[in-house]
Amino acid sequence: MEISKTDAVEIVKEISNLLHKKLNIMNNEGIIIASSDPSRINTFHEGAYKIINEKLIELEIQENDYDLKGSYIGLNFPIEINNEIIGVVGITGNSDETRAFGNIVKKMTEILIEGKIREENYRNKEKVREYFLIDWVSTNNTLFNSQLIQRGLEFNIDVQKQRRIVCMDISIIEKDKILMLEKRIKNKLLSYDSSNLIFRESNSIVLVTQELNREKINTQLNSIINLSKKDNAKVFFGISKIVTEYYNIHNYFENAKHALIIQKSKNVSGILYYSDLNIELIYEQIPTLTKNQIINKIFSNYDETEKGRIINILTIYYENNCSIKNASNLLNMHPNTLQYHLNKIKNITNLDPRNIKDSMLFQLCIDFYNQIKN
């Protein structure tokens, strides 16, 4: 067991500020890894080395002990964790000044290090648990069923229970806020159900929940959307069917990812269930290259900037059920101006946005355009 330099520096700073004494922490080789005097860091402390080798309960360095290389006047104590000396803590100063603080400093150091070890063990356990979730949910599982069940039980997870997979993604302008927002989202989801399983996979956050009721899920996820509005963020959710084959959960995960991709293409916060997808499932099978070719064929006479502007006009027009009045209000233009744009689109593309057959082609292009863009 070793004391990390980062932890040692933090402990020296904390205790020094509290007791107003100069401290050093040495590792199990007698090297100073943290000190109130930065010039002593990475130097050898022979007194500490003596404590470790001879298993001394303390060592007082006096003026006539300067033959101990790198050692100054003061008291030094072994740092013991589980009856093992893992380092030494030293207080610089004459014995009259340091004696009263000796055992206090030793005990405080050991308590703080034990706390750091517990934190590290917890982090390591959480990492292993996350690796299991990734292996189970997001990769094609090759384990035998009995092995999978046993591994899950090691983390208090019953993999045989019915669940839903929720894939979510966050779009936020201020990127420095995303980690804090993700933390708040995670805490919110765990407050709904402490058995919720949450991990990160690639660019998405994945929730494995035992909540199967759509109404309850929608209520919970809409609260996440409202929470994210405070940071001017958009949150997209794709949700799988109910997982009935725990050993085949990867397919349900892929379904949730498909739903997420389609929801993201709309570029608005929202929730989309894989079971609600229809023609969008066909869209997902079309290669991006083909989608681009279709868009470029329809809008061949527009440059990229103008293409984006026209697609925006058409999007709002169709989202408002082809209502000139409603669409023109949202576009901040006169109804006659919108009519002019629709006529111009017809003249340039030879397709009429108001014609049912042609409008289907335009809406296909809008979906492709948003999928590629987002």
Description of the structure:
- The protein is of the alpha+beta class.
- The chain folds into three domains: 5-117, PAS domain (Beta-Lactamase), CATH 3.30.450.20; 161-276, 2-Layer Sandwich (Alpha-Beta Plaits); 286-373, Arc Repressor Mutant, subunit A (Orthogonal Bundle), CATH 1.10.10.2840.
- The protein is 52% helix and 16% strand.
- It is built from 14 helices and ten strands.
- It has helices spanning 5-19, 46-54, 95-98, 102-138, 145-154, 178-192, 214-229, 249-265, 280-285, 288-298, 304-319, 324-330, 335-349, 356-373, and strands at 22-26, 32-35, 59-61, 74-81, 84-92, 164-172, 197-201, 204-209, 233-239, 270-273.
- It has a five-stranded antiparallel β-sheet, with helices on both faces. It has a five-stranded mixed β-sheet with strand order 7-8-6-9-10, sandwiched between helices.
- The longest helix is centred in the first third of the chain and has 37 residues, at 102-138.
- It is elongated and about 100 Å long.
